[in-house]
Amino acid sequence: MPCYRLDGLTPVVHPTAYVHPSAVLIGDVIVGPGCYVGPLAALRGDFGRIVLEEGANLQDTCVMHGFPGGDTVIERNGHVGHGAVLHGCRVGADALVGMNAVVMDGAHIAPRCIVAATAFVKAGFTCEAQSLVVGSPAQAKRTLSDEEVAWKQRGTQEYQALARRCMASMVECSPLSAAEPARPRMGDTGLRPKTGHGA
């Protein structure tokens, strides 16, 4: 993966975390156990510290960055969907930030919250635990049901399993020129859960 030491600070990736080879890690970045970092994600620890705690995932084309002296953190089992931007904020334990959402400086997404896709979370925003956060600017609309939280948790578990699958079997290769006869589907391999989940 493109990994760059800056001002003497080298990114840290736990041996059980999977970081896609196209993701970029710069400077003060700490990726914890069992994390997944997707293709083309950018983790820029060139001003503030970037932290993914145990079991968190940061999906493809996401950006994490922050101002000098601050931390941008995804807490344990946090789940960040494709294309989201996190800047100087904190995503609480077991929370989900949906696709293409933006969470700004000093915002704190409380544990077990879901931030809807494309939401814009203003600087300094706070909310209660287990809230549904939607809109631009984002507002906490209601309390999530336990079933909705369980749905989120299943999706996060799939990304934790994906990290293990990638560590075990992902290899760079050349494409085939045609599909094989009776080509199996990903779910037929026995490796992927039968129910899909994205964010």
Automatic annotation (TrEMBL):
ATP-binding keyword on record: no
Organism: Pseudomonas machongensis
Documented EC number(s): 3.1.2.-
GO molecular function ontology, one term from the record: hydrolase activity
Lineage, highest ranks first: Bacteria, Pseudomonadati, Pseudomonadota, Gammaproteobacteria, Pseudomonadales
Keywords annotated in UniProt: Hydrolase
The protein's name in its UniProt record: Phenylacetic acid degradation protein PaaY
Source superkingdom: Bacteria
Pfam families named among the record's database cross-references: Hexapep
NCBIfam families: PaaY
Annotated region (Disordered), positions in chain: 178-199
